């Protein structure tokens, strides 16, 4: 499997793959929209897994913390454990190469056990912290709480 930066020619296939891997979510859940993908493509931390078509993707960006950068993975989805592992390794290498030595990924291990295990296999650790969130505006009024770092 090849792990490479996303390209504009991938955008349509990425949107279809995201909908396939996360079916039935509200429109606001989906991140593989052209504007977002153009942003993430410039981050140098966003990759696709490609083998006879797209097998997965990771959307990540460096977030400046004032004295250091942390690479934040905001969406990762794949069809296989192999693709998850390779995508995570691609982000680890890109972060290291950019002197960003902190990588953050929020995982619900109860619903995404295969991703959780792949992350542990490539050296991530469970810090015991739990992410809580609040969605504002009409999305919050509708009770939407998913899609944030999922």
Q: What is the strand content?
A: 15-25%
What is the makeup of the main sheet? Answer: 5 strands, mixed
Mean pLDDT: 93
The helix count comes to 5
Strand order of the largest sheet: 1-2-3-4-5
The CATH topology: Aminopeptidase
Compute the CA-based radius of gyration: 15 Å
Distance between the termini: 23 Å
Could you state the CATH homologous superfamily? Gcn5-related N-acetyltransferase (GNAT)
Explained architecture:
This protein is an alpha+beta fold and 150 residues long. The protein has a single domain (2-141), classed as 3-Layer(aba) Sandwich (Aminopeptidase), CATH 3.40.630.30. It is built from 5 helices and 5 strands; from the N terminus they run βααβββαβαα. It has a 5-stranded mixed β-sheet, with helices on both faces. Helix 3 crosses helix 4 (113-121).
Essential attributes:
5 strands; single chain; alpha+beta; Aminopeptidase
Summary?
The chain has 150 residues and is of the alpha+beta class.
Question: Secondary structure elements and their pairing?
Answer:
Layout: E1 2-5, H1 11-21, H2 34-41, E2 47-50, E3 54-64, E4 69-78, H3 81-97, E5 102-105, H4 113-121, H5 137-141
Parallel strand pairs: 4-5
Antiparallel strand pairs: 1-2, 2-3, 3-4
């Amino acid at each position: 499997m090849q792990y490479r930066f996303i390209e504009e020619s991938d955008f349509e296939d990425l949107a279809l793959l995201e909908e396939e891997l996360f079916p039935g979510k509200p429109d606001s859940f989906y991140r593989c929209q052209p504007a977002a993908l153009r942003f993430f493509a410039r981050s140098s931390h966003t990759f696709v897994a490609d083998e006879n078509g797209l097998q997965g993707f990771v959307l990540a960006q460096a977030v400046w913390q004032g004295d250091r950068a942390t690479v934040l993975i905001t969406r990762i989805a794949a069809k296989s454990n192999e693709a998850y592992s390779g995508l995570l390794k691609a982000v680890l290498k890109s972060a290291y190469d950019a002197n960003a030595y902190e990588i953050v990924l929020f995982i619900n291990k109860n619903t995404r056990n295969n991703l959780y295990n792949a992350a542990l296999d490539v050296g991530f650790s469970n810090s015991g912290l739990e992410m809580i969130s609040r969605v504002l505006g009409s999305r919050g009024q509708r009770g939407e709480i998913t899609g944030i770092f999922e």
